[in-house]
Amino acid sequence: MRDQFLLDPTVTFLNHGSFGACPRAVIDAQRRWQDELERNPVEFLGRRSAALLAEARAVLAAELGAQAADLVFIPNATTGVNLVARSLPLEPGDEVLTTSLEYGACDATWQRLCAQHGAVCRRVEIPLPYRRGEVVDRLMAAVTPRTRVLFVSHITSTTALTLPVAELCAAARARGLFTLIDGAHAPGQIPLALDAVGADVYVGNCHKWLCAPKGAAFLHARPEHQDALEATVISWGYAEGTGGHSGFEAYLGSTPFERHLQWQGTRDITPWLAVPAAIDFQRRHGWPAVRARCHALAARALEGLTTRHGLTPIAEDGDWAQMVAIPVPVPPGQAEALRRTLFDEHRIEVPVTTHAGQTFVRLSVQGYNTADDIARLLDAPPLR
Ligand SMILES: Cc1ncc(COP(=O)(O)O)c(C=O)c1O
């Protein structure tokens, strides 16, 4: 499958997790959309965009177990987290509950927003080794009468762990909390049914594990919250006289949710229009079997490296999918040096992450990876 992707053949690419990688067929589909757009930008953006985006959303909704009316496209998960965090009416003393495993940029979003509102962002420690069964109790034990929001990743960034988000959302809902799930790594990596997750808002990337072009992500909101979400950029959807059948719906969309969040000024909408091509690519290539093969390869690397160094995996096999954080005997202060050596001297692109004083090779295995790629990692002198 490697030749279906545009990846540099001289690099052992084991970092799908950071920015994804897009198959040729999907990039070609995006380029066809761009060509069509440029034939008449006014026709495409001004008169057809809402309908084209609605079609793409319908395909995505069917793939993700959601209603198309509850989805809008956004450029990336970070934007989605910001949009929601900035929309919530946090009061001084309110608490946002999150975990110690969150992605740095989103963690920074909450820290900053809370500071601006006089609210408190509380990170609950999730100790390693990871015990999935303890997560709900740990977080719910930290809820106080001032807790308003629960924010957690579906799959964590540096540690690659799957959190029990459906159970967390149910428990938080029972306590009256607003739930926001950061699904940056989930779509395409694990089976996902958004309606079953039950979050108030779920943001996810299509440009990582779904293999869509960069800039393709979505925000899914329960109907009762859609009106309260404020776009990060105020644009035409908020202007007077652009609702209903004003003629603006051909590019702004038909619902207030769509009109407010979708049109943010002129931009390239083709990453979103190529999402159906990405879904089609994975369907044509039997993705459930591809995922299972990738997981098995990642498990081989985990077993090989941890056994060699006498280290213990941080989680059970079912707690991660195509991405796994493999502990390595390297002080956190030398993590970046290890990453650099692996790339500069061995042409292996893999991130080296740190968390709670431990260092990990965060391995991603995607459909284009082979047993040879894993063997090269295992044989790399800095990891021997
Ligand atoms: C858990 C998590 N959330 C959010 C993001 C940000 O994704 P994006 O850069 O597409 O906004 C990442 C990126 O790796 C991530 O790992």
Structural write-up:
- This protein is α/β, with parallel strands linked by helices and 384 residues long.
- Helix content is 43%, strand content 15%.
- The chain is built from 16 helices and twelve strands.
- The protein has helices at 16-19, 24-39, 41-64, 77-87, 104-117, 132-141, 165-174, 194-197, 223-226, 249-252, 256-262, 270-273, 275-284, 287-309, 335-346, 371-379, and strands spanning 12-13, 71-74, 95-99, 120-124, 147-153, 178-183, 201-205, 217-221, 323-328, 348-349, 352-355, 358-364.
- The chain has a seven-stranded mixed β-sheet with strand order 2-8-7-6-5-3-4, with helices on both faces.
- Strand 6 (178-183), helix 8 (194-197) and strand 7 (201-205) form a beta-alpha-beta unit.
- Helix 2 runs antiparallel to helix 3, helix 2 packs antiparallel against helix 13 and helix 4 packs parallel to helix 5.
- The longest helix is centred in the N-terminal third of the chain and has 24 residues, at 41-64.
- The radius of gyration is 21 Å and the shape is globular.
- The chain starts with 11 loop residues before the first strand and ends in a 5-residue tail after the last helix.
- The model has no long low-confidence stretch (mean pLDDT 97).
- The structure holds pyridoxal-5'-phosphate.
- The site of pyridoxal-5'-phosphate has 12 residues, from helix 4.
Identify the notable features of this structure and list them briefly.
single chain, 384 residues, alpha/beta, 12 strands, binds pyridoxal-5'-phosphate
